[in-house]
Amino acid sequence: MAGRLGLGSTTMIVTNTPAKDLAYTNFAYCSPSDLRNFSVPGSKLFLALVGDAFVLSLSAHESIPTGHIALNAIQRRHARVSTGDTMTVNRFVPPDDFNLALLTLELEFVRKGTNNEQVDAVLLDPTASEEIYQPGYDNRTEGNF
């Protein structure tokens, strides 16, 4: 990752997201006291480099004990961890003038029984553009959906 990391490596214990609806948010969750360790200076963001693999946005949840990080099933699979495992979690601070040159967007169904459903990339593009991209930026969607 090209960003700056926080004050050193933190080891946290992996747990499940605290509520089923939160599993669909793609946030990772930690205790309110741990959250401040992941603050991005000059912003309202809390970002973590999880398992030296990918960056996630963090949010606090009162039910998560200090020293734990709650990940949904897809996040745990990508990080190659299970509930109860320990993993390295670092604060991630994007570098100055951080510009995203390439975004690979992977979609997976999070509910059972929908694996055969098809998604049309052309129809998805306007929705993704509204949620992800800022006005004035060129974006193109290519897909193998």
Secondary-structure map with pairings?
Blueprint: E1 4-5, E2 10-16, E3 28-30, H1 32-35, E4 47-50, E5 54-60, E6 68-71, H2 73-79, E7 86-93, H3 121-132
Parallel strand pairs: 2-6, 3-5
Antiparallel strand pairs: 1-7, 2-7, 3-6, 4-5, 4-7
Report on this structure:
With 145 residues, this protein is an alpha+beta fold. The chain folds into two domains: 4-93, Barwin-like endoglucanases (Beta Barrel); 99-145, no CATH class. 16% of the residues lie in helices and 24% in strands. The protein contains three helices and seven strands, in the order βββαβββαβα. It has helices at 32-35, 73-79, 121-132; strands at residues 4-5, 10-16, 28-30, 47-50, 54-60, 68-71, 86-93. A six-stranded mixed β-barrel has the order 2-6-3-5-4-7. A hairpin with a 3-residue loop joins β4 (47-50) and β5. The chain is globular and about 40 Å long. It starts with a strand and ends in a 13-residue tail after the last helix.
